[in-house]
Amino acid sequence: MLLLLSNMDRMEQTVIYLEAGSASLPTNAAYLALCQQVRRSVFVKEQGVSESIDFDGKDGLCAHLLLLFGDDAVGTLRIRVTENGTKLERISIVREYRKQGLGELLVRCALALAEGPVYIHAQVQSEGFYQRLGFVVQDQRIFYEADIPHKTMIWPHEKGALPCTITRPS
């Protein structure tokens, strides 16, 4: 566990890493359910993404990061290896915890864990956030996923260092 100073009072924070293929294990089912709870709150309820799009059946094969404050799941990110490299996706922070640097924390953790070329399909509204982290737009063309405009962005830098301690469930 790590203590994070933010605009809020000091809060106990835990970043949990579910390795690829381990999310479907019975011992990790509760953690995966919390990741999905965050995504349901952000993508399905807030952004109107269909559950059938967000929950695409690939969760069990992917790695996941889960950010907890105490017992509250406040953020998640999915790491999926594709034919194009490692894709960071389903990056989400619940509304009440945004603007605290938590999205950056999750992305930096993922960049330290990911292998090979890394890319994202960034929502156009979030392009500036990813640029500030060091991603660059690969192609200016806008495409739509779940009726939301996106651009492909790549990470042109070396693998990062873990910005905090992570917990790997046994």
From TrEMBL:
Entry keyword Disulfide bond: no
Entry GO MF terms: acyltransferase activity, transferring groups other than amino-acyl groups
N-acetyltransferase domain span: 23-158
Keyword terms, alphabetized: Transferase
InterPro entries: Acyl_CoA_acyltransferase, GNAT_dom
PROSITE patterns: GNAT
Protein name listed in UniProt: GCN5-related N-acetyltransferase
Source organism of this protein record: Sphaerochaeta globosa (strain ATCC BAA-1886 / DSM 22777 / Buddy)
Species lineage: Bacteria, Pseudomonadati, Spirochaetota, Spirochaetia, Spirochaetales
